[in-house]
Fold this protein.
Amino acid sequence: MTATFEHIRPSACPACNAAPAAAHLADLPKQAALMLSLPGIHCAGCISGVERALLAVPGVTEARVNLTLRRAAVQGAPDVTPAALTDALARAGYEAHELDAGVLASTFADRQGRDLLMRLAVAFFAMMNVMLLSVAVWSGADGVTRDMMHWISAAIAIPAVIFAGQPFYVSAWGALKGRRLNMDVPITLAIALAVGTSLYETIHSGHHAYFDAAISLCTFLLAGRYLDHRTRASARSAAQELAALEVPRALRIIDGREETVAVAALAPGDIVRVKPGGRIPVDGVVQIGQSEIDRSLMTGESLPVFAGIGTRVSAGEVNLTGPLTVEVTAVGRDTTLHRIADLVATAEAGRANYNSLADQAAKLYAPFVHILSVVAAVGWWLYTQDMRIALNIAAAVLIITCPCALGLAVPAVTTAASGRLFRKGMLIKNGTALERLAEVDTVVFDKTGTLTDGAPLPIRLDALPGDAARVALALAQGSAHPLSVSLAKGLADLGIRPAHVTDLVEVPGHGVEGRWQGRVVRLGRAAWLGAAAPAQTASFLSLGEGPAIAITFADRLRDGAADLVAALQAQGKRVILISGDTKGAVIRFAQTIGITEVIGEALPQEKSALVADLAAQGAKVLMVGDGLNDTAALAAAHVSISPASALDAARSASDIVLMGKSIAPIADAMRTAVSARARIRENFTIATVYNVLAVPLAVAGLCSPLIAALAMSTSSITVGLNALRLR
């Protein structure tokens, strides 16, 4: 739509001039902004497919997919509903869930990363120019020429150092205000002394200035800081993701009328209606209707459960087959979903207290550097009575002991290890994940969706009689139940054509029925068809005469699962299986894969409690899971891994994400983590040896700040090359 403003007359008052235009714009139709989660997308083809499907929905004007975050941002007319978008994507073969765009608004901007990269670019550009100017001085320039080169260097270096070094200055000031020391305090002092002594030498036509040392110091440290930030950049708050999964709107029933309201406007005692395919917005009790509920995100159960009058339902669960009228018992922060989010937030806060190797080194290193620099300055002042010499020695000591090598020791190794594991299909999201993974002695696995593919597959379909297979396909195609969908695909893959079945009706909570050759045929639960329920997952087919035929299903083992469990046990790790599935199903599965410690029918709180109990016993736990019911346990574990197919919240709570279908790379990741920890310790050793050799020379006055900067750079490069051995 194009708006014209030819009727607006010029005015001396800008506000008056703008008011008619604003009023006209206010009359234009407002755009709706919606956010969708797309857990199943994985490539550029998915991006174009999703965007085409969304743009085909009437009223949608713009659709943009973010592959990294697996989300789509949609703009459209006010009458565009989330249901219309998710339905369109479902028809195109993409799973989609509505997210609360307001909750996620802050996750799109990586301001800190852009800020560090900008400062690094400025520092690098300034360093190269100052180094070029220094060549003239090193080549023997003297007198006015030398002074001019020093002044030009000062004009470039001082503004660059002030701007680029701000992350160190802010951190150092914060530490000093809190009456403590950190790595950034000696860094700030070194930069300040190098610039200060250089400016003093330049003003007094001194032979040496050390602007190149100051800006080189800043550049190397910013490179380490940016590498460290990049290893953490993928990590987002799992609690925030969980909050975004809460349904923002609901259908409230008042005096028999439906009205769409914000979930925040609901209160206990209100009545809401949940349509088939909709996510339940509140905790409540079913008052009217029968259906099946998908609780896989909450409990990990692979199969839907029956819901009828009196059944308790929770926010976040999905209503599958029939409309339900629910009386609200809890809203917002009081729901089960939000309580899980609170558990996750608490667990994340606890894990953030992990004391990395670099932090441990900093506690000892910073005080030592300050004391040494002060002693050197005081000693030389007492010996020479020349403050200029004393300050030069102090600057050299601070620069030569500056923790560039320490600052690069961990990020360089983490980056090299992350690159190695990424090529094997694993994404490292957290900077200390590899350090923590190297310490693991206990591994806790979820079952459904982690060690299995998560979708039950029909078995022995070729044993079905011809007519039975054709009728089963016709009935299965008329149902949205996960078992029916899986059965329909399995039969179609065998080349079976559906029978002519009429009057198809899905009976919520029971199954689907129709008429074939004048008989009523059914596909559904055992009790509905008068059959005895077997020990394994099954759906039953009745052809209207004779006993019902059982069609059994089995969870397919994820690629590499058996090899991984065997490898972990060979490494001496304790392996535990915990699942929300029934105890019998979990025990049978554990026997097939070789796990002896098994816990079934576990609630999300129980999974988190198990991890906490193991930690209290001194165990270092690796948690591997994929569902909402695993999220709190993933956040509470010493280190955690989830597959790329996991729920957004589970991936966010994890330190490492498996990008491929195979779970086998976890064993290689654990070996790489041990190697990475060894390289980090080697880097600390290199930095320590360098300081032991170089510091006495600086204190003795045998190293100018320039030589100190070159020595510092050499140690940093050595640390980086050692880290590359991991590749």
